[in-house]
Amino acid sequence: MHKQGLTIAENLAKIQERLLKTCDRVGRDPNEVILMGVTKFVPKDRIKEAFGAGIRYFGESRVKEAAEKFSGFNEEFPEAFLHLIGSLQRNKVKQSLLLFDCIQSVDRIELIEELIKQCFRDGVSLRDKPIKVLLELHTGEETKCGFADFDALFRAAQMVLSNPCLKPAGLMTMAPFTTDTSVIRSSFRLLVKAQKELEKRFGPKENWAVLSMGMSSDFEIAIEEGSNLLRIGSLIFSNN
Ligand SMILES: *Cc1c(COP(=O)(O)O)cnc(C)c1O
Q1: pLDDT averaged per 10 residues, the chain (length 240)
Q2: Is 65 within the bounds of a domain?
Q3: Is 61 exposed, middle or buried, given 0-12, 13-18 or 19+ CB atoms closer than 10 A?
């Protein structure tokens, strides 16, 4: 017989319980950890259901899919925020500047150049306020997304800080897909270390405050290591 699936609210309640337990264990305030719903491949009615259940941050990995599902979303739900979490190609930069509140996957200098070029042209700004960006650091994940090392990260930070169209907000990473929790943990620790270095070199703290790390399979480790933005897809949206 077909098993009755769980609702998104039920999935969220389970995640919330684990989140609270983990925060309690490491002495963190659960209110400082945002639970983002990653909605790639998730249809719009399920996204609305998640909004109804309290999710306010949404992450999409592809611009085209995000545009299809989220056009008009901000009029419907002005309190919701949409982030790009997947690799951004140059030819989608303009569209992204109009669609997203934050680009988490800023992973190369050419992309920053293109963002700067597109957001302020012929004396006209494409947006009414700067777009938030997170710098993505490669910390061991197989596909090698993100800046390769701290030097590359510092150069990127300098560029982002030099342009008023961009608002640095923090860092993002993906841990390797492995069951070896020590490998995952060191990946997250590297991101925290990068954050401390950026604060020291460039200040102020608020520019680097967001630590976007932790997915369905590793979010508890991410909380333990200091994440304040969890990107969760399957645990929220799968109905089993
Ligand atoms: C898909 C995706 C997630 C969410 O993954 P789940 O394992 O479904 O929670 C998080 N971050 C990025 C960058 C993703 O592409």
Answers
A1: 74 98 98 98 94 97 96 83 97 96 97 95 86 97 90 98 96 96 97 98 96 98 98 91
A2: yes
A3: buried
Whole-structure pTM value: 0.96
SS (H, E, C) 39-106: CCCCCHHHHHHHHHCCCCEEEECCHHHHHHHHCCHHHHCCCCEEEECCCCCHHHHHHHHHHCCEEEEE
Closest ligand 1 atom number to CA of residue 216: 9
- Is 145 within 8 Å of 174 (Cβ atoms)? yes
Task: Compute CA distances 16 → 9, 19, 55, 181, 213, whole Å.
Answer: 10, 5, 12, 21, 16
Query: What span, in angstroms and rounded, lies between the C-alpha atoms of 116 and 160?
Result: 9
* Ligand 1 interacting residues, C-beta cut-off 6 A: 38, 40, 61, 85-86, 174, 215-217, 231-235
Please tell me whether residue 110 adopts helix, strand or coil conformation: helix
**Where residue 54 sits, what CATH number does that domain have?**
3.20.20.10
Q: Is residue 165 part of a domain?
A: yes
In a domain, 90, yes or no: yes
Q: Mutation test of ligand 1: which of 210, 215, 232, 239 has the most ligand atoms closer than 8 Å to its C-beta?
A: 215
Sequence-separated (6 or more) residues with CB below 8 Å from residue 14 = 235
Q: Is residue 31 part of a domain?
A: yes
The total number of structural domains that make up the chain: 1
Domain that holds residue 178: 8-237
